[in-house]
Amino acid sequence: MVNLPLASSSWDGDELKAIQEVISSGNFTMGSKVSEYEAQFAEYFGAKYAVMTSSGSAANLLMVASLFMTRRNKFKRGDEIIVPTVSWSTTYTPLQQYGLKLVFVDIDPFTLNFDIQKLSKAISKKTKAIFAVNLLGNPNDFISIKKMTENRDITVLEDNCASMGAQFEGQYAGTFGLMGTFSTFFSHHISTMEGGCVVTNNEEIYHILLALRAHGWTRDVPKENHITATKTNNSFEESFKFVLPGYNVRPLNMSGAIGLEQLKKLSKIITVRRENAKSFQNLFEDHPYIQIQRELGTSSWYGFAIIIKEHADVDRQDIVNKLSKNGVEARPIMAGNFLRHEVIKYFDHRIEGKTEAAEYLDKKGLYIGNHHFDIRKQLVEISKILK
What we know:
- By secondary structure, the chain is an alpha/beta fold.
- It has helices at 13-25, 32-45, 56-66, 89-97, 116-122, 142-149, 203-213, 235-238, 253-284, 316-325, 356-364, 376-385, and strands at 49-53, 80-84, 101-105, 127-133, 155-159, 167-168, 171-172, 179-183, 196-200, 224-225, 229-230, 290-291, 303-308, 330-331, 349-351, 365-369.
């Protein structure tokens, strides 16, 4: 038995001690540990601001919502936003909930991110935003995306929930757009139980995110802010002044405390994941019937995609069964081709061109887990199983 689960805990005594300190303090709701984590998170990734949320999905929700709340609203209902055809459901659902029209563009069959040529053709006068998803640790081609959007009123957003620590041209993925989102769910690069983050360099957006995260009130925004200009000195009234249609997607103080410990380990975690990836690439890059994800920039290798090559006489379910029999967990690549899911009937959308790569991945793709510890021996055994 190879015994390779999809995910594993990267916690040790440091995280347990941090949890206990929060328990001992009695301050369980969002507090100082969250603020410290946000400051360190922003510094680590080279952003001005970070706002921690209860999940990566909540981070996507706030990111989209904030664009309807600016003084000169960037978005209005009916605006078109380009999205890749392969991602997770909560990449798309905030867009639907805010009445945006999704324009689906196919993925590149090798990088599994936007097909850059198809993306370029999809841009029109109606395009208000490009929502780039960095899939399985692999960053998009942001040089090409920047060229496409230069001198155009097109907002670039990033769902970087599965690609923490990835870099393109020396810059961290998640920081190329107006905003970028991250996830710290159990299976991701670092874990805070549940958790997410939005990063931005825009101060107005930052203030809006702070209000939206907690009920839409002014309590958490600075005295001088871009929402109400200047808060009054009447704390009794200001603590319960609601100015935006907000949510309650606050993280626990415990999650912030765990995050502070996890951030200390992130660089090492990514280094080990990349060492595992080198082994995976060496074992499978010339495989007779398996195609792997082509690294663009410097991936942080969330997991290892396995796609059956065209014309190979191999059944995906047979591979899944064989892996499972040997203790290796496998799953579809994100949500696969999102267009095939029944929920699509609720979306205002159109499809730009053909989506052959997404359709093929949906039928022929799967992925296995990467970890924060050395799994190179397990990968060798998996290569033998899949000879």
